[in-house]
Specification:
245 residues, alpha/beta, TIM Barrel, eight-stranded parallel beta sheet, 9 helices, 43% helix, 15% strand, binds zinc ion
């Protein structure tokens, strides 16, 4: 089985064809782990978990930190009370391309502490703050769509954190270098659907995670079936769950 360790199937962009997209993923043996990261997204993701057999992580996106404290508090409380339904807290983190770093950090810490409290790993959004966030960590973590330096990637996996490789791998030399230099036992795969489409003019969707596995196999010169198995094993280990379709 393939694992899309991070996507947003609850995104409104999928309202018209969500059934089809999920069916397509399942028919291609792709396990979906969706990430609700706004108050609305969290609620939609929880509904979808009941409707389809998919997995959840819930967090609060650094893009959204302008939200009122009341909204953030609500999101926090929903995650806390549904902790049994989630694999991880996330995505959470900081983003250098967004404003208000102090506020981003404050909210990131709040959710990082929640993860500790409910004993869950975290899914990190760390664009431009990879090093800072790496130095703050004290719970198991995966760097979603990791785009930091190769040097830092090596340090990250040395500390037993995971690096998730997205569909950006299909166009990016940096991501290729990361894959080349990082032990495959610490790699996960994702699409971040509907973002980061590898196909021009199309929305990204979880089944495209197969393209990431194929590319990792090429770069690492390992049989594709073997890569698939290793990534599945890594995913189960990181999320502490025997993942099923
Ligand atoms: Zn995302």
């Amino acid at each position: 089985m393939y694992v899309d360790a991070h996507c947003h199937i609850e995104d409104k962009g999928f309202n018209k064809n969500r059934d089809e997209v999920i069916k397509r993923a399942k028919s291609e043996n792709v396990i979906i782990i969706t990430s609700g990261v706004t108050l609305g997204g969290i609620n939609r993701a929880l509904e979808l978990k009941n409707k389809y057999n998919i997995y959840l992580t819930l967090g609060f996106h650094p893009d959204k930190v302008k939200a009122d404290n009341k909204i953030i508090e609500k999101a926090y409380n929903i995650i806390k009370s549904n902790y049994k339904k989630i694999l991880a807290v996330g995505e959470i983190g900081m983003d250098i391309k967004r404003e208000n770093y102090d506020r981003q950090e404050e909210i990131f810490r709040k959710f990082l502490n929640l993860a500790k409290e409910i004993d869950k790993p975290v899914v990190l959004h760390a664009r431009g703050f990879e090093e800072k966030i790496f130095n703050m960590l004290d719970v198991p973590a995966m760097f979603h769509c990791y785009s930091g330096s190769v040097e830092l990637a090596k340090k990250i996996v040395k500390e037993n954190y995971y690096i998730s490789i997205s569909t950006l791998l299909l166009f990016s030399k940096l991501h290729e270098e990361i894959v080349k230099n990082v032990d495959i036992d610490f790699l996960l795969t994702e699409t971040d659907s509907p973002c980061l489409s590898p196909i021009k003019g199309e929305k990204n969707e979880p089944k495209n995670v197969k393209l990431v596995v194929k590319k990792i196999a090429e770069i690492k010169e390992i049989d594709e079936g073997e890569v698939k198995k290793i990534i599945y094993k890594n995913s189960c280990k990181f999320f502490k769950e025997k993942l099923t379709l």
